[in-house]
Structures are given as structure tokens and as C-alpha cells.
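Dear colleagues,

As part of the handover before I leave the project, I'm documenting each prediction I ran so the next person doesn't have to rerun anything. This entry is a single chain, and its sequence is reproduced below.
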Amino acid sequence: MMRAVLTFIPMSIFAVVALDVAVPALVLLVCVVSTGVAASVAAWGARGMATMRGDRA
């Protein structure tokens, strides 16, 4: 019983630290990806508008 408790405590600490690192990293990744997607959509839209106005060949 004591061995199980002594094994569980370090694993709990490891899980908390892993989540403490993983959650902000995931949020940052989502922000970076969404910014890239938004920039791509904006560029695509600007290119389309330029083509419609005749600014691009």
C-alpha cells in the first residue's frame, strides 16, 4: 500500500507539471495557427479584389 502511494505522488506531480506546460503551449499553438489562417484568408481576399478591379493580370 505504501509503495503504491509513493509511486502515485511523483506521477501526480509529473502530471500537474506536464499539464502546466502543455496547456499554455496548446493555447499558443492555436493562436499562431489561427493568425496564419486569418492572414492567408485576408491575402486571398485582397488578391481576389485586385483581380476583380483589374489591378492584377
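The longest helix spans residues 2-53. DSSP finds one helix and no strands in the chain.

All the best with the project,
I.
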